[in-house]
Amino acid sequence: MAQYAGETSFLFGANETYIAEMYNRYLNDPDSIDAGWSAYFDTFEESGQFAVNDLNGPTWAPRKTSVLGQNDGSLSMVTSATDTSKEKVPPNTLTSQMSGVEDSADKIRQATQDSIRALMLIRAYRVRGHLEADLDPLRLQKPLPHSELDPESYGFTDSDMDRPIFINYVLGLESATLRDIVKILRKTYCGSIGVEFMHKTEPDEKSWIQERIEGAQNQTKFTKLGKRTILERLTEAELFEQFIDRKHKGAKRFGLDGGETTVPMLEQMLKRGGQLGIEEIVIGMPHRGRLNVLANVMGKPYRAIFSEFQGQPAAPEDVQGSGDVKYHLGTSTEREFDGNVVRLSLNPNPSHLEAVNTVVLGRVRAKQLQRGDEERAKVMAVLMHGDAAFAGQGIVPETFALSDLDGYETGGTIHLIVNNQIGFTTMPSFSRSSPYCSDMAKAIGAPIFHVNADDPEACVHVARLATEYRQRFKKDVVIDLICYRRHGHNEGDEPSFTQPQMYKKIAGHATTRTIYAEQLEKEEVIGKGEADSIAEAFNKDLDTEFEAAQSFKPNKANWLEGKWSGLETASGDERRGKTGVSLDLLREVGFAISEVPPNFNVHSRIVRQLKAKRTMIEAGEGFDWATAEALAFGTLLCESTPVRLSGEDCQRGTFSQRHSVLNDQESGSRYVPLNNIHFGQAPFEVIDSPLSEFGVLGYEYGYSVSEPHALVLWEAQFGDFANGAQVIIDQFISSGESKWLRMSGLVLLLPHGYEGQGPEHSSARLERYLQLCGEDNIQVANCTTPANYFHILRRQIRREFRKPLILMTPKSLLRHKRCVSSIEEFGPKSTFHRVLWDHAQHSGEIFDDDAIKRVVICSGKVYFDLLEERDKRGAMDSYLLRLEQLYPFPTGALRNELARFKNACIVWCQEEPKNMGAWFFINDLVEELMIELNMKKKRPIYAGRASAAAPATGLLKRHLKEQTDLVDAALTYEE
Ligand SMILES: Cc1ncc(C[n+]2csc(CCOP(=O)(O)OP(=O)(O)O)c2C)c(N)n1
Q1: Tens of pLDDT along 786-836?
Q2: Which of 342, 733, 890, 938 is most deeply buried (CB count within 10 A of its CB)?
Q3: Which one of 252, 421, 424, 727 would you pick to mutate in the ligand 1 pocket, going by the greatest count of ligand atoms within 8 A of its CB?
Q4: Ligand 1 and 423: CB distance under 6 A
């Protein structure tokens, strides 16, 4: 600092670093600099420091600490150059600008202050320009003038307008008058596009966006052909909706009317994406405009859509399933642009807005792996949203939360909000607390482009920018397409009931196509009346398609193609699959999971666990739950089946049982035994998820839908937390195959069992899943042996079909001495058992079948409580029968077992309250069997907790008493 001592005049050192250095000194000590400068800096707010940066040109992109100075004595502000991509700034300096002016301190002071103020103004436009942008096609609310965008706020007056001001090429100009600066700023930042990007913390991204915007004053110069193409797309989008409206007045189509610009924007993403290496795009979108996207972007034949309107099914008649309404259906196709082929999948979705988001992301991730797309440059997600849904639904932040996590990132999503400024009947002022519907995206620093849908060129320009940004930075980007909804929420609704003024305005508002056609006529891109001819020709095509629709037959359901070819629909009763494994392979995996590399410092308690595993392998006995799971995973990996498990804290396991990732206690390095079985094995991914159920479960479901050849599992921390993901369970997992012909082999691991932990940690709500069962849609199981767990996991991927598996998993049984299996139970001849016998059957201690007084049927952990008490009492007239799989209900297997006990009464024992658990589900099914077998008693008896509001008591004493009572009731019931 000493070199500046005594410099008190502006005349000295007025060079490109001088002002900034002075500002730095001012921040450290305002008295250390010239009083004139100090007074001037006093007028700065936050933006002052940035303006100083701008004055020194883009290489000053600041590191957080540089201006505010962690004073290391260097004073250098040019240190931040994390971005090497910036263009070189011409070596003009304030000094050179001043060299021609009269050598007077006042003039130099004036020029310097002008520069700094102008730069502050420029910066204000970058930050706040969007607030005065012309974004609303309806102009219902004119943007209010913002004081930070007023030159007066920076001390300028009218008389300053025409004085040249040095701005060091900040807007590509060495200097300009204030009038010109403001003009350029308004064109760039307050036209049809409002950009929010200054919240970003990454200098390189910020300057990339800034260059793109300021370089061309935020415009693309379209060729005549480009303009014509936009008009054609708008024509197709608009006329398609109007055509359906004419033919099927009032039929629900959730039209895109008012937001037609969506279509050319999506086209631009495909086209530019294709040029930039994108090979596949998965699209998620709501109902609004879906038919239009299906027809005009995905290329679904118009005749197919018209035929659905005429009441024909979307799938061939021999295909089973409930089907779905037309505005929820998905499709896939290929489009070619300039020789680049882009594969497109539009994901089917339920009515539940935004629920499809992470499903799409999971699919993208799986496809990236399939294509070897390590850079995530070939497969991309495009998510479309409504404004009200985007602002309102909690899954939106959950979706963003996944965007930059190793286990879930997909290289950035383009979000397109079709912001028609209304949600059903609710106006934005009632549906969100933030100024923009897109504000949630700022949480991850995504750039946001607001754009007026009545300026199609601006919209297509923004679509291009967003695509380029995604490809360059592999991050999320948001487009807020501000449009309107021409009709009611659906076409049968009268919107003027609730929004009279808005709808008066809309009625008199020309369509985007009309406005753009006029523009193109004026620009002489098209001749007079040519827009009408384009429209007429298209209408004729639609007429032909409409005729053809009457005899249209969908020729196939494309559901077992591509990655799914070779798989088939489920059939048969036992469905065992080949799940037994050679003892050699079991041992190989067993040794791999009980070993660590030399010099790896494992925690002493883990060493003990590993030793215990080693003993199991060597003895061939005593395999516990977690080891069985690792054997299932490991053997699949060795057979080239990847395994992906995600969930909260699942690497270690909520109950400290899994330890699938070992941590060196000194270096912190990590070792995954299951990835070190042998060279060439498939990869094992085990991912601690963010604290989200809805988002993550949707993601894993999506992954499983796109990758049938990997075992994909999601684990809940405790089973009941899965109800935070209920939409995914109801709308996708349990009904997706029936509605959309899309299989999934996803496994849900749901810790369940009554162990006195209270209302929220006992029940995984088994009853909910059982209620969802129908038409062979899912599998629900509650296993009691490690071997059965091993087989049911392997079975998921060793059969010819895929079905979601809902698995109640144990807590205390993880360490229960009788909940163990021997190596033979995993061996070559072993298999999954849907019904399991009493332990005492093997030892021969139990009475003969005819002497059995009661058969207690149960499922899950309560079996061990019953077993212990029964054995303690020596009550060998009670036979304990376990239902390991509840759905599909093993009628045949259970029939065979029950047939043995003609003299017995049947008790169903459960830990859950009577209004929960499996009682409701098995009651009828067991009764039917008892009648069919003509058993002495014709109805099962209930032994369990009384109906209750909460799943379990919070008082341990009460829990224990209830547990003792229900076990006692089951073992003592007599007719
Ligand atoms: C999760 C969810 N809640 C409620 C609804 C019922 N609903 C259907 S559309 C709609 C309004 C959606 O508004 P917006 O997101 O702005 O989309 P727009 O229909 O205006 O295109 C509502 C509330 C729904 N489909 N999904």
Answers
A1: 999 999 999 999 999 999 999 999 999 999 999 999 999 999 999 999 999
A2: 733
A3: 424
A4: yes
Measured from the Cβ of residue 687, the count of other Cβ atoms closer than 10 Å reads 18
Kind plus residue range of the DSSP H or E element containing 945: strand 941-945
> Does 288 contact ligand 1 (Cβ within 6 A)?
yes
Structure tokens given for 19: 């002002």
CB 353 near ligand 1, within 6 Å: yes
Q: Which atom of ligand 1 is found nearest the CA of 259?
A: 21
Residue 394: partners with Cβ closer than 8 Å, 6 or more residues away? 694
Supply φ then ψ for residue 123, to 5 degrees. -65, -40
Q: Is the pLDDT of residue 695 over 70?
A: yes
* % of the chain residues with pLDDT over 90: 78
Per-residue pLDDT at 23: 67
Which pair of structure tokens corresponds to residue 247? 């033919």
pTM, two decimal places: 0.90
* Beta pairing class for 331-337 and 340-346: antiparallel
Give 179-245 as a DSSP string: HHHHHHHHHHHSSSEEEE-TT---HHHHHHHHHHHHHTTT-----HHHHHHHHHHHHHHHHHHHHHH
Q: How far apart are CA 3 and CA 21, in angstroms?
A: 12
Strands 711-715 and 643-647: what pairing? parallel
Q: How many angstroms separate the alpha carbon of residue 290 from the centre of ligand 1? A: 14
Query: Cα(197)–Cα(102) distance, rounded to whole angstroms?
Result: 40
312-363 tens-digit pLDDT: 877 666 566 667 777 778 888 999 998 999 999 999 999 999 999 999 999 9
Please give the DSSP secondary-structure letter assigned to residue 520: H
Locate 582 and state its tokens. Answer: 């050679």
CA dist 867 and 388 (Å) reads: 55
Among 290, 353, 395, which is best to mutate for testing ligand 1, by the most ligand atoms less than 8 A from CB? 353
For tokens 């000094």, the residue is: 95
Q: Distances from the Cα of 30 to the Cαs of 19, 20, 44, in angstroms?
A: 14, 14, 13
| Residue pLDDT, tens place only, 883-900 | 999 999 999 999 999 999
Tens-place pLDDT, residues 271-285? 999 999 999 999 999
Binding site membership of 252 for ligand 1 (Cβ less than 6 Å): no
